[in-house]
Amino acid sequence: MTRSARLRPLLAISTLLALAASAVASAAAPKPKAAPNLAIAQVSRMDTPWWHRRFADKQAEIAAGQYDVVWLGDSITQNWERTGPEPWRDFAPVWQHYYGDRHAINLGFKGDSTCHVLWRLAHGELDFRKPPRLFVVMIGANNFGHVHTDAVQTYPGIARIVDAIHARFPTTQVLLLEVLPSIRSAWISANTSQLNGMLESDIRRGRPWLHVQDVGAAVGGPGAPDRSRFLDPHLTPPDPPLHPTAAAQQDIARMIEPTVAAILGDHRH
């Protein structure tokens, strides 16, 4: 038997041992952790001075009053407080018409995503003196912006928000508005459509107190949003179309009014 022939079995055994050792090492090595989903976290913005002041002001409003209607969301909701002077950002008269006699409070914060709303709810924005009768929730647009969570990640953030409201106020109805179409990027448009499809098909399951409404027609016709229905192009410098004009937001209030009036048990405004 040649020397090479005598070595072949030893080489084969060495190879098998090396493969076995590699397999053991691979099994023992820690697997990389999946990145946390920011959309379901609680994230404070208290280090932002204007946000801190607004949060404190809204806490004082909650402590001082009794409210039947709570609008909860981001800058689109906060815009209800704008008073012009241009007609395209004169929102306050529309708010006064629909909600002025309904003991309503505006809990909209510019730039907030689901994680910021979850922090607010856990730190005082559910501390009402009596249960509100209706929450109108409009959130998710900013998840696709600076937070950059996609539709699959954003959906559980929205679900946690409505569930947190219900856990505190089991008799309160929640009206969830789908994320408005915008003209920002193809990725954002695709994720907006995907998220809204998920909300329509699934989120009401097991939640009889939850109502979901598509109000996208307020910012455009079939197929694509209408730039003229957004205030952002009017700004100097202009921004990508995201926020409805006062007229478009009036259409949103008009569209949800049958549901709002039915829940509150009063006349349609």
From TrEMBL:
<protein>
    <submittedName>
        <fullName>Acetylhydrolase</fullName>
    </submittedName>
</protein>
<feature type="domain" description="SGNH hydrolase-type esterase">
    <location>
        <begin position="72"/>
        <end position="250"/>
    </location>
</feature>
<feature type="signal peptide">
    <location>
        <begin position="1"/>
        <end position="27"/>
    </location>
</feature>
<keyword id="KW-0732">Signal</keyword>
<dbReference type="Pfam" id="PF13472">
    <property type="entry name" value="Lipase_GDSL_2"/>
</dbReference>
<dbReference type="InterPro" id="IPR013830">
    <property type="entry name" value="SGNH_hydro"/>
</dbReference>
<dbReference type="GO" id="GO:0016788">
    <property type="term" value="F:hydrolase activity, acting on ester bonds"/>
</dbReference>
<dbReference type="InterPro" id="IPR036514">
    <property type="entry name" value="SGNH_hydro_sf"/>
</dbReference>
<keyword id="KW-0378">Hydrolase</keyword>
<dbReference type="InterPro" id="IPR051532">
    <property type="entry name" value="Ester_Hydrolysis_Enzymes"/>
</dbReference>
